[in-house]
Amino acid sequence: MEAPPVTMMPVTGGTINMMEYLLQGSVLDHSLESLIHRLRGLCDNMEPETFVDHEMVFLLKGQQASPFVLRARRSLDRAGAPWHLRYLGQPEMGDKNRHALVRNCVDIATSENLTDFLMEMGFRMDHEFVARGHLFRKGIMKIVVYKIFRILVPGNTDNTEALSLSYLVELSVVAPAGQDMVSDDMRNFAEQLKPLVHLEKIDPKRLM
Amino acid sequence: MGLGPGCPGEWEFPERRTGGWGAGRSRTVTSPKDLDTPFLVGVSTGRCVFNVSSGAPASIRALFSEVVSPRVGCWSTPHFSCLILPSSWPDTMGVTCVSQMPVAEGKSVQQTVELLTRKLEMLGAEKQGTFCVDCETYHTAASTLGSQGQAGKLMYVMHNSEYPLSCFALFENGPCLVADTNFDVLMVKLKGFFQSAKASKIETRGTRYQYCDFLVKVGTVTMGPSARGISVEVEYGPCVVASDCWSLLLEFLQSFLGSHTPGAPAVFGNRHDAVYSPADTMVQYMELFNKIRKQQQVIETRKPNQ
């Protein structure tokens, strides 16, 4: 059972509800360079940052209709970095004028025995993949351009194959609940990336 | 030392132990009382970087020996510049023994705690603030059990004031997860699957004493409003390998606990050469809390027979 929707409530039980605002799009492989070039110009000045992450999605099935989903992510190229556990709630429906997809999110840094611990809790791994790409920042906005790789042998992250001939582009912000002006800023930034990539609010339910 | 806040400086620390994960630690002054927050690691390739928080004067050397993380692989003599980054990452701590002090005959819990602390003060230990370790118990909700086909397990979620930005989650005889405090928020989301056992919150609160390289914490264990026992935690800072310093720890424990000195904790048992970590301390506290919970149940079941 999911917790009650955390719509406009900034604080629940003493903790701040953080929401993730998300816009997604994609580019074909051959357009990657021009996109990276534009992003380097628009975003904060920093060393180009690439990443290789291994993400595993865990499900806990109860008697409720929908299982509880947790995402565990670890870095394959940065030794010693903590594992990242993420909970994403259901997308907030409602305001059609809101430009970005909004969902409750809880981010937790953990030690390396996360998968063992989740199994002990009763979670089972549903699927896993490797994400390889570039990271940019503009203020509180994070822009990630990455390719998803399918893992052929479970647990073996060296043996992978690309899922498609394109890169996924995500523009996201994690901010306290109730700050909808964030989605306006995101839309303005997304405008600047047209026509290289069209970032839009994609409802995951419509795809299933 | 005379270092001002944020002033860079460099120190050399000799290797104390090579091989294994290769970190060397050497302890000099031991009074990190100037910093409120626990510190740790900004690390990059053999150089540990720490940021001095404003107002911390000369007792900075104390912090270095606390902070070198074996995982970094500081093979050669580490050089430190004076920047300590407060971090929630409890990666390493000195070997620690957590035990229970029985309440003295004819005395209350508080009086026994006072006896102990007076003994410590006479030894020459310095009071250094307070500490708190708490523990909540969760069990798998009945609705989840059916599909898993296994007996409900108990999960303990603990906090330690020594690491205020961290949360420890563990199963008995199972893995101990070290996470940041957002884990508590996640447990709220998991309410449907994991329920908090009624009135299960148990905690120990008390004073910290520093005596040379030993950090002693004497606390009163309480469940709700009632005091149930006394916990004694002793940490020997300079050493991270249990088998290397257990005899020294034992001697020190005997000097103020006398006949109530405990045996070697179970966590030391299997992994003689493994590096000690804060998760091991939390396992010891969990065992102590469980023992105290059972003791109370025994007392309560005896009463009707009297």
From TrEMBL, chain B:
GO terms for biological process: regulation of transcription by RNA polymerase II; skeletal muscle cell differentiation. It is found in: Nucleus. Its main location: nucleus. One of its GO terms (cellular component) is mediator complex. Residues 1-28 are annotated as: Disordered. GO terms for molecular function: transcription coactivator activity. Keywords: Activator, Nucleus, Transcription, Transcription regulation. PANTHER family: MEDIATOR OF RNA POLYMERASE II TRANSCRIPTION SUBUNIT 20 (PTHR12465:SF0), UBIQUITIN SPECIFIC PROTEASE HOMOLOG 49 (PTHR12465). Component of the Mediator complex, a coactivator involved in the regulated transcription of nearly all RNA polymerase II-dependent genes. Mediator functions as a bridge to convey information from gene-specific regulatory proteins to the basal RNA polymerase II transcription machinery. Mediator is recruited to promoters by direct interactions with regulatory proteins and serves as a scaffold for the assembly of a functional preinitiation complex with RNA polymerase II and the general transcription factors. Component of the Mediator complex, which is composed of MED1, MED4, MED6, MED7, MED8, MED9, MED10, MED11, MED12, MED13, MED13L, MED14, MED15, MED16, MED17, MED18, MED19, MED20, MED21, MED22, MED23, MED24, MED25, MED26, MED27, MED29, MED30, MED31, CCNC, CDK8 and CDC2L6/CDK11. The MED12, MED13, CCNC and CDK8 subunits form a distinct module termed the CDK8 module. Mediator containing the CDK8 module is less active than Mediator lacking this module in supporting transcriptional activation. Belongs to the Mediator complex subunit 20 family. This is Mediator of RNA polymerase II transcription subunit 20. It comes from Bos mutus grunniens (Wild yak). The gene is MED20.
